[in-house]
């Protein structure tokens, strides 16, 4: 069989990732709502851990002149991409309120903030309970007394099968450099899951018309923590409360993106929850 031709001029995977995976306005609106309910005031400062391209932190400073944000990631090239594209969208004044730090979230110190985020399951890189507790303790220390910590986690029956694929069609867009990307496929592959350790290996692939397949654009080697474990460890790390928010489904079986505080939930094939640690 002839070798498959390599995709010509492949699109930058960070654009594809941001378009497929992130919805920072939903995250920020959710957190602000929970914050206001608990603390009866508006949050002003945010810390985005595992920030990658710092899309959420950049959006926060853009939203209001009184907002300030810190982003932490230990991968300088990804931070550089965020500076080039997300921070460059900001005015000079907004950029002065955005602080991107290259470092490990376990060690990097920031001023105290009102809200901390660890999204897209990033904290699952910590596979040992003591390490996860140490991380949660660091976040607890980095919060103001009126503060909260928002994480997300996925689960459901498909998350604990040996192998599974989830394919979603993502609307196309044009990059700032003028590259037109038509509607494309985002593929989440769970390549391995070990029920003894809850370790899982997942890949993100993209199929972009005119550019072919971009296999293993991102790979994650994680421990899939369960909701009770996350809540227990947040409390062990000093949080006064740990709350779980889950969505319902629309008529097409997709998440309705409305997250409600729950004590019970009927398990389904797949769900994504926000867990909130209250300082
Ligand atoms: C799944 S991406 C998350 C990107 C983005 N924040 C989001 O919500 O989609 C995970 C990021 O965490 C970073 N990372 C992993 N372990 C880290 C650590 N211990 N300290 C700082 N950054 C870390 C990686 O470099 C990567 O950019």
What would your notes on this structure say?
This protein is α/β, with parallel strands linked by helices and 279 residues long. It has two domains: 16-154 and 226-278, Vaccinia Virus protein VP39 (Rossmann fold, 3-Layer(aba) Sandwich), CATH 3.40.50.150; 157-222. The protein contains seven helices and 14 strands. Helix 2 (24-39) crosses helix 3 (55-63). The longest helix is centred in the N-terminal third of the chain and has 16 residues, at 24-39. The protein is globular and about 50 Å long. It starts with 12 loop residues before the first helix and ends with a strand. The structure holds S-adenosylmethionine (SAM). S-adenosylmethionine is lined by residues 21-22, 50-52, 72-75, 78, 104-106, 119-120, 122, 125. Residues 21-22, 50-52, 72-75, 78, 104-106, 119-120, 122, 125 line the site of S-adenosylmethionine.
Task: Output the keywords.
about 280 residues, Rossmann fold, 2 domains, 8-stranded mixed beta sheet, 4-stranded antiparallel beta sheet, binds S-adenosylmethionine
Bound molecules: S-adenosylmethionine
| Coarse structural class | alpha/beta
Strand content: 25-35%
Beginning-to-end CA distance, first to last residue: 60 Å
Annotation field: number of helices: 7
How would you sum up the major sheet?
8 strands, mixed
The CATH superfamily of the largest domain is identified as Vaccinia Virus protein VP39
Low-confidence segments, given as residue ranges, are none
Overall radius of gyration: 19 Å
Count of spatially separate domains: 2
Helix content: 25-40%
CATH A-level architecture of the largest domain: 3-Layer(aba) Sandwich
How many DSSP-defined strands?
Answer: 14
What do the pLDDT scores average to?
95
Strand order of the largest sheet: 3-2-1-4-5-14-12-13
Q: What coarse outline follows from CA principal-axis ratios?
A: globular
What is the name of the CATH class of the largest domain?
Answer: Alpha Beta
